[in-house]
Amino acid sequence: MNKFVVGVTGGIGSGKTAATDRFQSLGITVVDADLASRVVVESGRPALKAIEEHFGSGVIAPDGQLDRRALREIVFADPDERKWLERLTHPLIAQEILSQIQSSTSPYTILVSPLLLEGNQHQMVDRILVIDVPQDIQINRTIRRDTTTEAGVKAIIAAQMQRQQRCEKADDIIVNDKDLASLHEAIDRLHTTYLDMANARHKQL
Ligand SMILES: CC(C)(COP(=O)(O)OP(=O)(O)OC[C@H]1O[C@@H](n2cnc3c(N)ncnc32)[C@H](O)[C@@H]1O)[C@@H](O)C(=O)NCCC(=O)NCCS
Ligand SMILES: Nc1ncnc2c1ncn2[C@@H]1O[C@H](COP(=O)(O)OP(=O)(O)OP(=O)(O)O)[C@@H](O)[C@H]1O
Fold first, then answer.
1. How far is the CA of 85 from the centre of ligand 2 (A)?
2. What residues make up the domain containing 15?
3. For the CA atoms of the chain, what is the radius of gyration?
4. What is the value of ipTM here, to two decimals?
């Protein structure tokens, strides 16, 4: 792929969305794996039918849509069920992501994904930016944002790559432990660097 793509990752509640909202306000197209994961299980899609057959009608809401909360409780309590769901949805999510990247016309493109480094998605990116936070901040911010418990957040953290391992794979790291203004300053600096890298790539072509 000749587009310059920056992958942004980090654990749940680390601030990926807060970071990528800033890139978007700078005019950069943001492809979001969490949003792509919703598209592939919309009602009427074959994946939703397969999920209903496997997990039963308890994961389908009265309006026919996926009951995300019900499925979340099952898959983060049982790694085998999570793996089953990932085997079904990850190839579809990858297709959706690739088509969105191909449609991007901004100077470079951001792919934001909680699982960028766990599977194959990192193969779609040229550079990896990790949004890193200490675990106590990660848990507190997620509880404040979602109606969830500390145990619920910890179950998801346990299904994700460990913080140190993630940081070892990063080209760039932002430690998001201060206010949003500090996060924005760090993003603005990286944006200049990424524009230079994307320009250098285009000159080579
Ligand atoms: C289980 C589901 C239905 C729960 O939906 P819900 O709306 O409650 O949560 P949402 O999708 O917004 O995810 C919240 C956060 O949980 C974490 N998370 C989601 N899926 C996974 C997973 N398979 N492994 C580890 N962490 C995950 C991410 O940090 C994500 O940002 C949903 O997360 C899902 O379909 N997951 C499987 C697909 C997947 O792996 N998505 C991750 C992006 S590729
Ligand atoms: N620097 C910051 N200061 C204060 N609050 C912040 C900061 N960064 C993020 N937040 C808040 O913390 C919460 C989690 O951030 P965000 O939603 O961006 O995380 P995320 O990594 O996208 O999470 P998920 O993996 O669940 O999608 C949000 O409510 C966000 O507004």
1. 25
2. 5-204
3. 18
4. 0.96
How far apart CA 107 and CA 100 sit, in angstroms, is 15
Mutate to test the pocket of ligand 2, among 145, 154, 184 (most ligand atoms within 8 A of CB): 145
CATH number for the domain spanning 35: value is 3.40.50.300
Side-chain half-sphere exposure of 129, counting CA atoms within 13 A: 27
Question: How far apart are alpha carbons 48 and 52 in whole angstroms?
Answer: 6
| 178 Cα: distance to centroid of ligand 2 (angstroms) | 12
What's the total number of domains in the chain? 1
pLDDT tens digit at each of 205 positions of the chain: 589 999 999 999 999 999 999 999 999 999 999 999 999 999 999 999 999 999 999 999 999 999 999 999 999 999 999 999 999 999 999 999 999 999 999 999 999 999 999 999 999 999 999 999 999 999 999 999 988 899 999 999 999 999 999 999 999 999 999 999 999 999 999 999 999 999 998 887 6
